[in-house]
Amino acid sequence: MGATPLSLGRFYPRRKVDDVSPPAIRLLWCGDTALTVEFGDRIDPALNARVLALDGRLRDADCPGLVETVPTYRSLTLHLDPILVDPARLEATVRTLAALPAPPVPPKRVWQVPVMYGGDFGIDLADVAAHHGLSPSAVIERHAAPEYRVVMIGFLPGYAYLDGLDPGLALSRRSSPRPTTPAGTISIGGVQALVASIAAPSGWHLFGRTPVRAFLPGRDPVFLFEPGDGIRFVPTDPARWDALDRAAAAGDPVAEVAA
Amino acid sequence: MSGRLAVLACTGAASLQDAGRRGYQRQGLSASGPMDALALAAANVLVGNPTGTVAIEFGLGGGRFRQEGGEAWLALAGAPCVLRVDGVPVPDHRAFLLTEGSSLVVEPPRRGVYAYLAVAGGFAVPEILGSRSLHQRAGLGGLDGRVLRVGDRLDGIGAPGGESPPGIHASLDPLPLDGEAPVRVVLGPQDDHFPPEALAIFAEAAFTVSHRADRMGIQLDGPALAHGRHGYNIVSDATVMGAVQVPGSGRPIVLMADRQTTGGYPKIATVISADLRRVAQRRPGEAIRFRPIALADAFALARERMAVIADLPRLARAHGTRMAESLASANLAGVAVDAFADPLGDGM
């Protein structure tokens, strides 16, 4: 990351480093079907604000061949129809739009997400607390305190990656991933926090579970969260799991939106 | 004349796939769709469908089916498969009529991996988020969000515009699998994570398709690709179909139609869209080589590929005419042609 581009004489000199200042972007072609606009190589809310700003501007721009976009922590990928796209024109459009100022904007909506912490719901909570010399309830308090920002939805349908974790809770991933973790898992990995949707393998530390379905085929909307949304975790009595879980399975979001 | 195709037996992972699902990668849902888009298009053209109509995708497998409640025109294209209608062999890459009560056997291919069985009019499964393609991991699309199994009944939508859809007297040359030539890639998006030696190995070595190959990704055996001083973790970014991701083991994985939408491993190169089907059709144990090309050439090859797909209906009609003529002359020569040896079912 941030390396001097390799000089590959017999290969196509694809890499371009923008010298416009501030701040430089890199345009990385992913074959003939996508262009990744890289704003940086680290997790940084300022970079994500630029990602989301470009994403919004592209929606209103005239970009032949642009099929869909994927915002991540620090880059925006444009999926393209290789027949319709004009690569040079697209690069120019992206550079123009990315150079516009992109002040961070507050989230349009903030979700209140109920979480059942610890015990069978979050089997790593006690270990993480011990690691940091905290009580489990202090970990819950710190995890539920911030307003997080959805910076990327990816990997699997509805998996919401969050920025905003208390650095005092950060902990690098487990050395061996678990072959499966339950749907609705609330976890952390490094400085990242996650709301999982469906069951999947994971090497992250499991703090709890939410009955909220970030992804539910058959419900309208199928996906609950959008990149840029705010998230607040609401510690919730495990005794309420069954009722909330049933309601969520039936299509109730069970996550409230605060304006 | 809509009819149903009943699944009597099924091997491998057979799923329903159309052109794929657009617009939900920002929500973590990859596009799915065919592993071999040219083969899906060909199967559809043979029965007079638009190229992206939903069809059955077989992956290293086959099946046994029975036609119920009416007759249907079908065609299979892609990996070559032995087909039998009521026990009588029928060629692939050619339309055939399956009458009510008839059975169809699709034998697993001996070459290639993915084959597509299209029915005139398509299969009547609901569109989910704009597509009928199965995304197995998400449990969404296809028939009830899962692969086909014994006992399933696939309703046909029925041929549009009458009993015999336009272009039905159609055949195509079997699609080449192009196994030998190197698969063309564009380097990047993270080729700068690899030292020149690793890039040289990637461009020159022979890799082997492993048994860990499915619609999500195709893991390759062969020389490990060492990462440079930045290591093998990146802050996750988006993936495309054809991305050659290199995890800590150094063993490359080509991400495919049902892949994860984002990933935290560097991607040394990206298979060009025109060559994706050639990767998909390589069987476990078969060799695969990569050749970096210029981005501009990748776009040119994509346009060539589109021209080939656009030309399929004309090719199929031309073939069909020649085939009908040869069948007619065979009849004039006094050769008996029974109902099943005449897969066109046109009595010639």
From TrEMBL, chain B:
The keyword ATP-binding belongs to this UniProt entry's keyword annotation: yes
Origin: domain of life: Bacteria
Transmembrane annotation, as ranges: none
Pfam families named in the record: CT_A_B
SMART domains named among the record's database cross-references: AHS2
Presence of the UniProt keyword Oxidoreductase in the record: no
UniProt entry keywords in alphabetical sequence: ATP-binding, Hydrolase, Nucleotide-binding
InterPro entries, per the entry: CT_A_B, Cyclophilin-like_dom_sf, PxpC
Domain Carboxyltransferase: start-end pairs: 26-308
PANTHER family, A to Z: 5-OXOPROLINASE SUBUNIT C (PTHR43309)
NCBIfam families named among the record's database cross-references: urea_amlyse_rel (TIGR00724)
Annotated protein name in UniProt: Biotin-dependent carboxyltransferase family protein
Species of the source: Methylobacterium adhaesivum
